[in-house]
Amino acid sequence: MELRLEGVPGLEARLFRELIGRCRKPTTRIGEPRAEIPDLVTRRSPVLAVHGCGALSAAKIIGETAGIQRFRSKDALVRHNGTAPIPVWPASQVRHRLNRAGSRQLNAALHRIALTQARHDPNFRVYFDRLRAAGNTTTEAIRYLKRRLSDAVYRARLADEPAPGSATRLLVA
Asked: Domain-by-domain residue ranges, the chain?
């Protein structure tokens, strides 16, 4: 649109160019924090030590699990992020299915990490092959990995956040 308005004289063309510039400004400002996130997360959290966890996924995990002490245990976090299995009993077989409850944002971050591990981590391949040999489907194997990742995130977040009641300093940028 701006290209069409270049060189067009008149008040309307000038006002439209200004309006287009004002509309683009918030879009560029929204992208500014994205450049700062990797540095802040790298200095802030051991969640990045989880193989396959990038800066944006770590930022999402940190934001969604703020105040990790509010979860009684790793199992409470598993319920919160939707990776707790739900038992189903089809035809005398005990199986588990995906839990669709909980924080979908946190679950999506864990899923991205799980897929990255599935593609690039040789330890996961051994674990995955063992699960498949035991008769589990690919979806079930990913669900098992997400559960293990949730436990790893819980441990990392506990190490990251100070205990309640301890003296903490609020950093204001």
From this structure: 45-160
Rounded CA separation 65/76 (Å):
11
pLDDT digit string, tens, across residues 133-154: 998 888 888 888 898 899 988 9
Local confidence band at 166 (pLDDT 50, 70, 90 cut-offs): low
Nearest one of 49, 52, 37 to 110, comparing CA atoms: 52
Q: Given CA atoms 140, 141, 142, 143 in this order, what sign does their dihedral have?
A: positive
Q: pTM (2 decimals)?
A: 0.70
Give the chain as a DSSP string: -HHHHTT--SHHHHHHHHHHHHHHHHHHHHHHHHHHHHHHHHHH-GGGGSTT--HHHHHHHHHHT-SGGGSSSHHHHHHHHT-S-EEE-STT--EEE----S-HHHHHHHHHHHHHHHHH-HHHHHHHHHHHHTT--HHHHHHHHHHHHHHHHHHHHHHHSPPTTS-------
**pLDDT tens digit sequence for 46-55:** 777 778 888 8
